Amino acid sequence: MNKERLYLYDTTLRDGAQTQGVQFSAKEKQQIAAVLDGLGLDYIEGGWPGANPTDTEFFANPPATRARFTAFGMTKRQGRSADNDDVLGAVLNAGTAAVCLVGKAHDFHVTTALGITLAENVDNIRTSFAHLARLGREALFDAEHFFDGYKANPAYACEVIHAAYAAGARWIVLCDTNGGTLPEDIARIVTEVIASGIPGDHLGIHTHNDTETAVAGSLAAVMAGARQVQGTLNGLGERCGNANLTTLIPTLLLKDPYASRFDIGVTPDALRGLRRASRLLDDMLNRVPSKQAAYVGASAFAHKSGLHASAIAKDPSTYEHIDPAAVGNMRIVPMSNQAGQSNLRARLAEAGITVAADDPALARIVERIKEREAQGYAYDTAQASFELLARAELGLLPNFFEVKRYRVTVERRRNKRNQMVSLSEAVVVTKVQGQKFLNVSESLGPDGSDRGPVNALARALAKDLGPYQAMIEDIELVDFKVRITGGGTEAVTRVIIDSEDGQGNRWSTVGVSANIVDASFDALIDAINWKLVRDGAQA
Amino acid sequence: MNKERLYLYDTTLRDGAQTQGVQFSAKEKQQIAAVLDGLGLDYIEGGWPGANPTDTEFFANPPATRARFTAFGMTKRQGRSADNDDVLGAVLNAGTAAVCLVGKAHDFHVTTALGITLAENVDNIRTSFAHLARLGREALFDAEHFFDGYKANPAYACEVIHAAYAAGARWIVLCDTNGGTLPEDIARIVTEVIASGIPGDHLGIHTHNDTETAVAGSLAAVMAGARQVQGTLNGLGERCGNANLTTLIPTLLLKDPYASRFDIGVTPDALRGLRRASRLLDDMLNRVPSKQAAYVGASAFAHKSGLHASAIAKDPSTYEHIDPAAVGNMRIVPMSNQAGQSNLRARLAEAGITVAADDPALARIVERIKEREAQGYAYDTAQASFELLARAELGLLPNFFEVKRYRVTVERRRNKRNQMVSLSEAVVVTKVQGQKFLNVSESLGPDGSDRGPVNALARALAKDLGPYQAMIEDIELVDFKVRITGGGTEAVTRVIIDSEDGQGNRWSTVGVSANIVDASFDALIDAINWKLVRDGAQA
């Protein structure tokens, strides 16, 4: 069957850079461009050459991408010729094969924000695209506020885009700049634009997520005939973000009617790298990945309900809309008080522990988990503590070391310069293979500041564990979550610690106590034990 | 104009409880039910009575809600009568006015997961709803896997829901259990179901966000005729979550065609509490609020681009699809504090502090809050700390006492009976009206057990504050939440403490430091200062 070509245009490096709290360096832009190119996108918009030093530096050494590398800018300003507008000149001087210029399609914005006449605006747009056509560049017109403009004054909005199209723009990109247009309106307006004479294979769609429908709006535009979709990785972007390509790509590739009607540049093999691409971007930006993200989130294929888990064991398609491996993700069957033995065996198998269905230890493990959860433990995320608990019941957990006692002190007082400063100090006494180790550590951050009692304990604990030292030396405490459970006078503190080793393995452990330091200490002990089990240490 | 009634059904406490990492206590369910009821939802589904101890406890003392409080369960099992099924019995015994029972609408699941015949399944469903009808309960049929079932075998999927409807179910809820159905398919199938004879005002829609289109799918179902929408606050739920009511509510209330066609139970006044409701749930669950969340996210009305910001200054509607105040949110415009100030005055007025619109302290307070938030502080819930900060800038905060130094020690060792026990001890030195107080306290729970370093500090601090002692004696630390912010090497710990006094007043304070004990101590100091201000203490 003949499929139609659908083009993907990435604006992570331009519109994505408008995310609050995100600031790319030129070097990061290089790295991200490589990730995007690996996915197989058709266009990569790099930024606005001349608008700021980062973009100017980035375009001076553009990445070598298979995708069309694109510069963004704006149509020529009023009162200058296209030749003599230095802002437009800087964009064109970047020398990219494709150039995307923004212009206003909403009459209200022309008069209110630009302060020029409607005819002047149309003329500026026409002249700019005629100039690009003369230079032989592939030209895209970013029709800002198109949908709001079309609702207010359809004749003018159409006049603007037809002027750009007639002057030689290859693509007319209909932008829902404020993100307020719902999918049904997008579908209707795209249909009307095509009826007005601009063919669908010259139309792009650019949506924002202000009503949580950016993905659906993009799909609606494709169904109505648009053949270019713009978006960002992980839905980065101003305010609530842009249409999320991390979601759109698998939907277009795996789900009908899209999969059978369209070809996109992304191969099934590249799709298996999607989860990793999403994580790389989060890591680069030091953002916490969204667990609930469609397709790529850590929870996207997590089956917590016991009814679901037992059906999944019979056939994964009972509760999964796609195979998680297709996007490089995996199934998680967490253990919680809602789950039963089928969850348990599936989860143990994932940890490499095979247990026969009739093993009486299974019932003991479920009992023990219920008992611990009633005390405040939570094993949904703390997979490493879960494994240790199961191993203990199965007789598969060596007794590597014993903690005899510890003491931690936090002190706050004025220093010589009369500033209030803190100091934490921990002493930990352990016994390893008959030998006693007495370790002491302060808690110091990279800048010499105090990081608190849990950090001091972790350092003292990992300072010298005798024969195990080499295995635990590179463990780092990377995240730390605390909450009070139970409430009232019986409140206890639950601590979940994420640890990471030098090879980038990450694991979560849990500790519970009325005393936050004790709870943290228990989680730290689990973190070390899990690493020792994983590395095959002998007791 | 005559509007149609559209009903909102909340399942935060049932399907939302399936979120990985989320575990509600019965007390938290009470608190969340109150928040949901304040928004004006029509139905609040509380959980599954009998399925686990938490839900059984919650239904034994159901919350007094204006909304219809609903119990969830499943249709009777094969081989029992509806009268003799103890699982169904436990659900009905909860005595709720409305009952929602799940049953399978997908032939593949009936034979694969249940292992019964298609006819047996229909009969179980029919019998269950006939039983509910005899008992006079408002009955909802949760048609599990309806959309996948309809795609595979439309005749059977329809037979199942018609059996429930004919037997007396008030609502047939069409569930996209696996979350893989796209909006256009939902619209088509809802249209066909209505054509098959079930009126739209008896149809509900229940979607999941596995393709990031749960909100759009719900809207598509409403456009096709369904008149009940199910979802959760903040989109909690299994895997990628349920349809997000925090997004759907403002869209239905503010945006056409929905706003002009439908009445929902949420008033414009309740809508202004939406952002706060969303944050309260996140705080309760100790989840990091999504900055990019539609309508309620901290970035939802943040205008980072310079072009956008200057247009916003001319007219906010240039780059905003709704007025942020409508959902209790606010505009963030870097370089301009104008927007923040009117919000600030309103919040100060709530705290009983009147400030003139032209008071230069307003700008200073906004600056100070921004500065502190950049350090990791959060003032959304910590209203007491916010008030203290504002009072300090306004010259309205007396200097009641000064902390000279403190020291806290946690020790864990074996006692005489060879049990591991902990002991925390704190020394706090304060200066009150020129007099020095040196206090020491252990940390002991009601049962004599150790409650940890923060408890010891709170006790030592409140042991003797000289002239203020009578005012602070009855302060109790009732909740304690900890979060790591910033990430990486610059991570800091944020502690939010809830305190309560003998008259049942409750207030929240915040502290931030790389050291968790320091952060807690700062929050404790704020808690005491706020109480002294509130009780009119003199410095």
Automatic annotation (TrEMBL), chains A, B:
Keywords: Acyltransferase, Amino-acid biosynthesis, Branched-chain amino acid biosynthesis, Isoleucine biosynthesis, Transferase. SUPFAM superfamilies: 2-isopropylmalate synthase LeuA, allosteric (dimerisation) domain (SSF110921), Aldolase (SSF51569). Its EC number is 2.3.3.21. SMART domains: LeuA_dimer. It comes from the Bacteria. PROSITE patterns: AIPM_HOMOCIT_SYNTH_1, PYR_CT. Residues 6-272 form the Pyruvate carboxyltransferase domain. The keyword Amino-acid biosynthesis applies. GO terms for molecular function: (R)-citramalate synthase activity; 2-isopropylmalate synthase activity. Pathway: Amino-acid biosynthesis; L-isoleucine biosynthesis; 2-oxobutanoate from pyruvate: step 1/3. It is an enzyme of class 2 (transferase). It catalyses: pyruvate + acetyl-CoA + H2O = (3R)-citramalate + CoA + H(+). GO terms for biological process: isoleucine biosynthetic process; L-leucine biosynthetic process. Belongs to the alpha-IPM synthase/homocitrate synthase family. This is Citramalate synthase. It comes from Yoonia vestfoldensis. The lineage of its organism: Bacteria, Pseudomonadati, Pseudomonadota, Alphaproteobacteria, Rhodobacterales.
